[in-house]
Amino acid sequence: GQLDTTCHAFIGETVVLPCTTSPPGELSLNRFKLYWQIGKKIVHFFQNGQDSLKDQDQNFSNRTSLFLDQMKHGNLSLKITNVQLLDDAEYTCIYRQPEDHQTQKSKIKLNVSDPVRTEKPPSSSGQSQICSGSPTDVPCLALLPLSFLILVLLQLWHL
User: Fold this and answer.
1) H or E element that contains 157
2) What does R_g of the chain's alpha carbons equal in angstroms?
3) Which parts of the sequence belong to the Ig-like domain (predicted)?
């Protein structure tokens, strides 16, 4: 399959790998299944309305989460905290709704960099990265500076 998007993160950061249902709509999560995988390795598994992590690859233990409040609206994105060099891989988001018996897949490439070894200045620790789902190689949107910019613009507007 072809890549749907490429994301970038530095070691230690939090990254969100995008995956949404198409077409978007209300999902019934009780019988819904969602797999996040690297090859055959299970990164995160959700079934019957809850996480099912007993077969999760040990490298991802306690570092992955889904947006449970947004899943029923089609947001199946995966959040990975404390990104490691080992996380640099091609991820597959696989979801299946029993009603339509269709399995849908999305492929996301995560490129992980060591901020010490790159020429770009390291970003502040704990900064979140979110990727947009376009077919081209796109940099992730850093949330911290954006929220700061919005706050500054709101303050100026109130003057």
Assistant:
1) helix 143-158
2) 17
3) 12-111
Q: Is the dihedral of CA 106, 17, 121, 113 positive or negative?
A: negative
Domain regions of the chain by residue span: 5-113
Token pair belonging to 67: 């947006």
- DSSP characters for 35-86? EEEETTEEEEEEETTEE--TT--GGGTTTEEE-HHHHTTTB--EEE-S--GG
- The C-alpha atoms of residue 79 and residue 7 are separated, in whole angstroms, by 12
Sequential pLDDT tens for the chain (159 residues) = 567 899 999 999 999 999 988 766 677 788 789 999 999 999 999 998 999 999 999 999 999 999 999 998 889 999 999 999 999 999 999 998 777 677 889 999 999 998 876 555 545 555 555 565 444 443 444 443 444 445 444 555 555
Instruction: Write the burial class of residue 23 (CB in 10 Å: 0-12 exposed, 13-18 middle, 19+ buried).
Output: exposed
- Report the CATH fold assignment for 5-113: Immunoglobulin-like (2.60.40)
